[in-house]
From TrEMBL:
Chain residues that bind glyoxylate: 239
Cofactor field: FMN
PROSITE patterns, alphabetized: FMN_HYDROXY_ACID_DH_2
Gene Ontology MF, one: oxidoreductase activity
Catalyzed reactions per annotation: (S)-lactate + O2 = pyruvate + H2O2
Keywords annotated in UniProt: Flavoprotein, FMN, Oxidoreductase
Protein name, UniProt field: L-lactate oxidase
SUPFAM superfamilies named among the record's database cross-references: FMN-linked oxidoreductases (SSF51395)
Length: 338
């Protein structure tokens, strides 16, 4: 299976809302919710993608010829590439019933672990979703990151009991999901968290805690104060607040504020190995990619995921070589132009 074959097959089974576009840039699906679109007019998802495309590469091929090493280490684990599959929930609601969250996570977690990266798994109202995600991660010796929604603390505590049994090498909370309507309708309501609440949550976990949904320096400093080991610069793919800046627009200032004191991931519109290179050049330690991995699963199951990972990895290695970077540590800001 090649990438085009995977896309072609995905178009037969993705449902009415996602068109499995050649480039997942948010334009066709725009504000299609249910579906992969963004909130409001859909501007934020489109902007996420476009801002990465505005950053250009500084080619330099006057250097010694060395093999490129894309390997990446974090929290005691070594990965083949510095990118991960992002968490996606309610796939049968937003895409089609070919998969539900349980079967989707089982395929994604296994395929990512076998091909040198890790998957962040989603969460949902059904407690079985986290239970099965934890089981899938445990089955691959902890190579996965369960992502817990910002439920009320009682529910979070229950979820963390499952998470701690998974042997996951890290645990995340997507606090930007506070903008999802179904969380606000809970009793007691779920949603935003204080620094003190996040610190309490981090103490429930035996492994590094990742806070996803940071879009400002102020937010990054709060996450650091709460005891997070890492953050994900993310606006939830534009799905929780319209008219946000793109993640590429805020990444550097967040890196300048907290880089070196905690790990920094970024997501939002990153679609190629070239985009991954740009994010690393701006100071990110690694990136997350979500929607295209849904397409990969629907289009080819484990083989589709493998195909997409290999495509991204080859693009990243080629970009590194053409810009004179032979390890991830060699990638610097002067290799891009904004």
């Amino acid at each position: 299976m090649n990438y085009n074959d995977m896309l072609k097959e995905a178009r037969t089974c993705m449902g009415d809302h996602c068109k499995a576009c050649n480039i997942c840039n948010g334009i066709v699906c725009k504000n299609a919710i249910p579906g992969p679109g963004a909130k409001g007019v859909g501007d934020t998802a489109i902007r996420n993608y476009q801002k990465w495309q505005e950053i250009r590469l500084n080619m330099d091929t006057i250097h010694e010829n060395h093999p490129v090493n894309t390997s990446f280490k974090i929290f005691g684990k070594k990965f083949k590439y510095p990118f991960f599959a992002g968490p996606v929930g309610a796939v049968d609601f937003h895409y089609s019933d070919k998969y539900d969250d349980l079967s989707y996570n089982n395929i994604l977690v296994k395929a990512c672990a076998e091909n040198g990266i890790a998957a962040f798994t989603g969460d949902g109202i059904n407690p079985k979703i986290m239970e099965y995600a934890a089981d899938a991660i445990k089955a691959v010796e902890g190579i996965g990151v369960p992502t817990v929604k910002p439920w009320n603390l009682e529910t979070v505590h229950e979820k963390m009991r499952l998470v701690n049994k998974s042997d996951a090498f890290a645990v995340a909370m997507d606090i930007d999901a506070a903008g999802l309507p179904f969380l606000k309708n809970m009793t007691p309501p779920a949603g935003s968290k204080t620094v003190e609440e996040l610190r309490e949550i981090s103490k429930m976990i035996k492994v590094p805690f990742i806070i996803k949904g940071i879009m400002t320096v102020k937010g990054a400093l709060k996450a650091k104060e709460a005891g997070a080991s890492a953050i994900v610069v993310s606006n939830h793919g534009g799905r929780v607040l319209d008219q946000c800046p793109a993640t590429a627009e805020v990444l550097e200032e967040i890196v300048d504020a907290v880089g070196g004191s905690m790990k920094i991931f970024v997501d939002g519109g990153i679609r190629s190995g070239t985009d991954i290179f740009k994010a690393l050049a701006m100071g990110a330690d690694a990136v997350l990619i979500a929607r295209p991995f849904v397409t990969a699963v629907y289009g080819g199951g484990e083989e589709g995921v493998k195909c997409y990972i290999e495509k991204l990895g080859a693009e990243l290695a080629d970009t590194m070589e053409m810009c004179g970077a032979f390890t991830l540590d060699d990638i610097t800001r002067d290799m891009i132009r904004k």
